[in-house]
Design goal:
The complex is a heterodimer of chains A (327) and B (633). Chain A contains 14 helices and no strands. With 327 residues, chain A is an all-alpha fold. The N and C termini of chain A lie close together (6 Å). In chain B, a hairpin with a 2-residue loop joins strand 6 (187-191) and strand 7. Classes of the chains: A mainly alpha (327), B alpha+beta (633). The interface between A and B is large, with 50 and 59 residues.
């Protein structure tokens, strides 16, 4: 197990390096125009462009430039998102300070949405899988098809329009002034300010999970060991919930890890539509302003979270599926 | 103007345009003027019943440089400065042009400046006894603080993205900026309340330049550092801003400038990308200020959100105003047609122009007849309709917005066509005079007229607009090769003469202050040429420059002398007339553009707002005049 974890951790580092290098290339080398010029704005002097060139290390060889940015990913004091490189040209704040300020919002959004979609998606999937071709199954699948087909930006605006603007049942978008940190985010959640964002995110994922659980359950229920369980005289209820479900839910763990990781990296559309000052909104604000250090910070944070979520999922597999052994 | 490096950041112009852009709109008669809401009153003498309350605003995006006065080149921030945070030597009343909004008045200055006989030195007396906001409430605003601000304006580490070029004309400014001098020789403080400014050339608009945020005084710190409280904050002084206006960032009193700059804690009222909270500055003396209303006792601004949803919140009264949004078309329709809502929509000319620019070095546009032919063929009304119709602005017949010329050219359009839809026959007559139409049939028959490289914006409505232009120019034998790019990339390409684009189809330009120089100099003189910004047409480029940039055409017209002559005049009728003649010369002799629209600003306000005025200087609502006495926190 220990060797496996070390191997996976090294693999995670490799993934982050590849992502960081690609991001670096995209933002530094591929766009039209000089990144230093883009950073300093259009009214500028050759001296200022030169200063920005030096600040970005663009006067250095490519590998040196990359190493300056890469060093910032080392979680060690003095290196981790160091301010001489990771300093926003848009907001004029250290990138790590800005990320830390936004993580509570994104965290609560992602976790709350995951709880909702699991609470809805899995029961519906089970119901459909157990009662195939019933009215309930068909209704559930219609629910699922609508969900997976619906663009999230449209659903989000529709929900806002209906439940806030017209019916006035739920709060409008945005987080009130002064709701800062984890305390502020939790307070906003307690006031129901996350309900619509959660539902927007959760509906689409719940629909997807319902379809997945249904398909897995149907497939599992045709396995030999299920037949054996029935042959031993176990009740159908026990066959389904004790044996069938365990096999059917294993892939859900994989997907959940990836999906939550993805959301923690930033729910771009949801945060933008609902005015939630999280990681996704930060990315959306930073890209048009060519705030390269901030974009790098967001990208790497996202890559790190997804890679870490992957690792956790793989480890969790051992507990969910006894057939999995780590070597 | 000598070797001054000048240019006006398109960054700000873009933001000005952004505020009024994509107005996805409806036909409705509008132009200059709109519906002021609420009682008329004298600025600086607040009407008691309008005072108090919390003004709730939202912004889609944060300001551009975290409120650093030496970096912020953005109309929205300029309004925060003017209305609320920073007082300057001179300033504006925060009203529309027709109510005097383009006129400048003494603010921290005790009166109008005096000018030396040679026209080079301006002397300002500063009002005594005015103090800064906490934590500098015991520090008086003095002449030395303006010098400090100018030194920071000249500092290339602190002024990134700003507009220091406006101050190059001060004697010794460029030397100080280059590190060749220890002080700016042209700005001195003979005594605590006297400031003398000496320019290298006679200049009529010095007071306008000292009405911009970068010139606002910076208080000294306890250690006597050169940049005062801004010392050690080259990148982030905005977050440590010490206010001099009626408001300050909430919690400003907690800042401790005696600590090492790295250990200082910023005012908590401004959280970049998230919120701005302004509270009343206890040091502010309303009796010293005849320009501001300062109605709300508190201003709260949320940053981020969805445009349409924010306007729904205005409609519901949860927000009072959206600072940088684009009012959705259906809302404009509702507010213009519903009698209950009509007093809550405000439409004003925003003092910005939209245009298509020609590259005078790139055939076939090196020929003035081709440029004129395009002006004749251009369907301006079609372009306006594609933007949303008449409420988006007024058809432009010339380059400078009308307020910069006191409306002298309001009815002038040398290429006027029926319904502003273009006249292909006149265009052909003009094309027939061109060297690129060898048989004189009004159709270009030279290969240079094929595949003309046109740079445009990929966002709506530009693709449709360039498609219309392509259609309009076909009868003249001109075919376009349109490259639609992300906006920032587009501007970089238009700016770069090495790109050899022939047409730049999507730029816009807003004034920096109410004077023609903010159009004339950056857009058409050598001072605005690459790299400083924004003379895309290359007007005034020298043969050496044209050769260096790889052009076969090396002779292009110049208007530098004309610009310099206008710049030297005193503000007033003669100066207005000079800019008007300059504009006419551009339109008829140089023809660097097709100007097609003078943009409007469209605002809606919540029912909570009992007073609204439009600040012509920033091209936005005057925040301090948005009265919400009934709003409680």
């Amino acid at each position: 197990m220990g060797r496996y974890l070390i191997r996976r951790a090294l693999f995670m580092v490799l993934v982050i390096m590849i992502v960081s290098f690609l991001t670096f290339l995209i933002f530094v080398k591929l766009p039209a125009g000089d990144p230093a010029r883009r950073a300093v704005g259009r009214t500028t002097t050759p001296e200022q462009i030169e200063n920005a060139t030096k600040a970005f290390g663009l006067d250095k060889p490519l590998y040196v430039q990359y190493w300056r940015f890469l060093k910032g990913f080392i979680p060690y004091p003095g290196l981790w998102l160091t301010e001489d490189v990771y300093y926003s040209y848009g907001n004029f704040v250290p990138v790590k300070e800005e990320l830390a300020r936004r993580i509570p919002i994104t965290g609560i959004l992602a976790i709350g949405a995951a709880v909702i979609w699991l609470s809805i998606g899995i029961p519906i999937g089970i119901l459909s899988g157990v009662r195939r071709r019933s009215v309930a199954d068909r209704a559930a699948m219609i629910f699922a098809i609508i969900g997976v087909s619906m663009p999230i930006f449209w659903l989000a605006q529709l929900l806002l329009y209906a439940f806030w603007f017209k019916l006035e049942l739920l709060p409008s978008s945005g987080i009130p002034i002064g709701y800062n940190g984890w305390g502020g985010a939790l307070r906003a959640a307690a006031e129901g300010r996350f309900i619509l964002p959660w539902v927007s995110l959760a509906y689409i994922s719940a629909a997807f999970y319902a379809r997945m659980v249904r398909g897995n359950l149907i497939e599992t229920m045709n396995e030999d060991y299920i037949r054996t369980a029935r042959a031993k005289g176990l009740s159908e209820r026990r066959v389904i919930y004790k044996h069938g479900l365990r096999g059917a839910l294993t892939p859900v763990v994989t997907m959940l890890g990836l999906d939550v990781g993805l959301l923690l990296g930033g729910a771009f559309i949801t945060e933008t539509v609902f005015g939630l000052p999280g990681i996704g909104q930060l990315a959306v604000q930073s890209i048009p302003t060519n705030d390269f250090p901030m974009v790098m910070g967001v990208t790497i944070l996202g890559a790190f979270i997804i890679a870490a979520a992957n690792l956790i999922v793989d480890v969790a597999y051992a507990f969910v599926d006894p057939r999995v052994r780590y070597t | 103007m000598g070797n001054m490096r000048r240019g006006v950041a398109l960054k700000r112009a873009l933001r000005v345009i952004a505020v009024v852009t994509v107005l996805g709109l409806v036909a409705a008669a509008c132009g200059d003027g709109g519906g002021d809401t609420g009682p008329t009153d004298e600025p600086g003498q607040p009407t008691a019943e309008l005072e108090g309350g919390t003004l709730n605003m939202a912004m889609l995006a944060d300001v551009t440089a975290a409120f650093d006065p030496q970096k912020e080149y953005y109309s929205v921030t300029w309004e925060y400065y003017r209305c609320c945070l920073l007082r300057t030597l001179m300033s504006y009343e925060g009203v529309p042009t027709d109510e005097g909004g383009a006129q400048i008045h003494p603010d921290l200055a005790a009166g109008e400046p005096t000018q030396s006989e040679d026209g080079l030195t301006w002397t300002y007396q500063i009002k005594p006894g005015l103090m800064y906001a906490p934590p500098k409430e015991d520090t008086e605003i003095t002449a030395a603080d303006f010098i400090r601000a100018m030194e920071r304006t000249a500092n290339p580490k602190a002024n990134v993205g700003g507009y220091s070029f406006y101050y190059s004309v001060i004697e010794g400014f460029d030397d100080f900026a280059a590190g060749d001098a220890t002080e700016i020789s042209g700005i001195t403080a003979p005594d605590t309340h006297t400031l003398e400014i000496t320019t290298t050339t006679p200049l009529g608009d010095v007071s306008y330049r000292f009405a911009m945020g970068t010139s606002a005084p910076i208080p000294p710190d306890d250690e006597g550092e050169r940049l005062g409280v801004a010392e050690g904050h080259d990148r982030n002084y905005g977050r440590f801003l010490v206010a001099s206006g009626p408001y300050m960032f909430e919690g400003s009193e907690t800042m401790d400038f005696s600590a090492d700059p790295g250990d200082q804690t910023e005012a908590p009222g401004y959280v970049p990308g998230r919120q701005i909270v302004l509270v009343e500055n206890p040091s502010y003396d309303p009796a010293s200020d005849e320009l501001r209303d300062h109605y709300p006792e508190r201003i709260e601004v949320r940053i981020g959100g969805d445009n349409d949803d924010l306007y729904n919140q205005v409609e519901q009264g949860e927000l009072d105003f959206v600072v940088d949004g684009a009012v959705p078309a259906e809302k404009i329709r509702d507010y213009q047609t519903n009698p209950d809502l009509q007093d809550r929509i405000n439409i004003y000319a925003s003092d910005a122009v939209r245009y298509v620019s020609f590259n005078l070095g790139e055939p076939p546009f090196d020929d003035v007849h081709v440029r004129k032919a395009v002006n004749w063929a251009f369907d301006k009304e079609g372009w306006r309709q594609l933007r949303g119709g008449p409420s988006t602005g007024e058809i432009a017949g010339h380059i400078f917005v009308n307020s910069l010329q006191d409306g002298i050219l309001a009815d002038y359009d040398p290429y006027q066509t029926p319904n502003a839809s273009g006249d292909i026959e006149k265009a052909k007559e003009e094309m027939a005079l061109s060297k690129y139409d060898t048989d004189g049939d009004g159709v270009c028959d030279a290969p240079e007229c094929q595949g003309i490289l046109t740079i445009s914006d990929r966002e709506d409505p530009y693709p449709e607009q360039t498609a219309l232009l392509t259609q309009n120019l076909e009868p003249l034998g001109l075919t376009l090769d349109v490259k639609q790019l992300e906006r920032g990339t587009m501007y970089n390409k238009c700016l770069d003469p090495n790109s050899h684009h022939a047409l730049c189809a999507a730029p816009g330009w807003g004034k920096d202050y109410a004077d023609g120089i903010t159009f004339g100099e950056p857009l058409f003189t050598t001072a605005g040429l690459y790299e400083s910004c924004c003379n895309y047409s290359l007007v005034g480029a020298t043969p050496e420059q044209m050769t260096e940039w790889g052009y076969d055409v090396t002779e292009v017209p110049s208007v530098d002398e004309m610009n310099e002559a206008c710049a030297a005049l005193e503000p007033g009728d003669e100066r207005f007339q000079c800019w008007a003649e300059y504009d006419q010369h551009l339109m008829e002799e140089v023809v660097p553009w097709v100007p097609y629209l003078f943009d409007n600003s469209v605002d809606i306000i919540s029912a909570n707002v009992e007073n609204y005025t439009f600040d012509q200087f920033a091209g936005l609502a005057a925040f301090d005049s948005l009265a919400v006495p009934g709003n409680t926190s």
